[in-house]
Amino acid sequence: MYRLDLQDKSAVVTGGASGIGEASARQLAALGAKCVIADLNEEAGQKVATEVGGIFVKCDVRSEEDGAAVVEAANDMGPMRALVNSAGMGMAGRTINRDNEPMDLAIFQRVIDINLVGSFNMLRLCASAMAKTDPDDDGQKGAIVNMASVAAFDGQIGQNSYSASKGGIVGMTLPIARDLAAAGIRVNTIAPGLIDTPIYGTGEQSDQFKAHLGKSVLFPPRLGYGDELASMVMELITNPYMNAETIRVDGGIRMPPK
Q: Is 162 a catalytic residue?
């Protein structure tokens, strides 16, 4: 099977300083890609970039200027062939609280702005750069993988903003894939389940909490590993017939209300 060749091509990984983004950057580098680690965490981002032989660019995904700097850095290293959109955040809050007061609208707006608008911002800028490259022998110019969440489908109590942002990413996958087909660019989305990332902290209490969460996973009954997610990212990037799809990578979990 003909696969998208990443050798000496550039790739952008947002949120690449840790978690799923870091794991994806390491696997992209193993396939020969030159990675731009786009993140706000300078210390961790620089460390990952050095270890994968790439470069770090401080980036707020909501910023057109930051995004343009990331694209410029990638173009300097080689034709851009991949974007992994893994930057994101969550803020819990019920629609109304126990005193029946409404949730702060700024919380909802911030999560949507970073997770959904930020993802689209980086996608549109990177897609433009990919479209200007020469296609490979299969007509491909690049591939994009967005990061949603099972919360897009199984949102829990207090996840209204997070679920809406991730649902938006799922919803834009097909139309953007249709938009970019003429340019030879594929677009897919992953909806991760419970993944063991730095968001859960470290230490004995954290380990106990993660073990408890893992019991709700169908099989294997544990949190997923970043490398397991990154493996699917690589498949979606390199497999030329994967397009316009959202795939759950979650061990079969279906999230309860709380």
A: yes
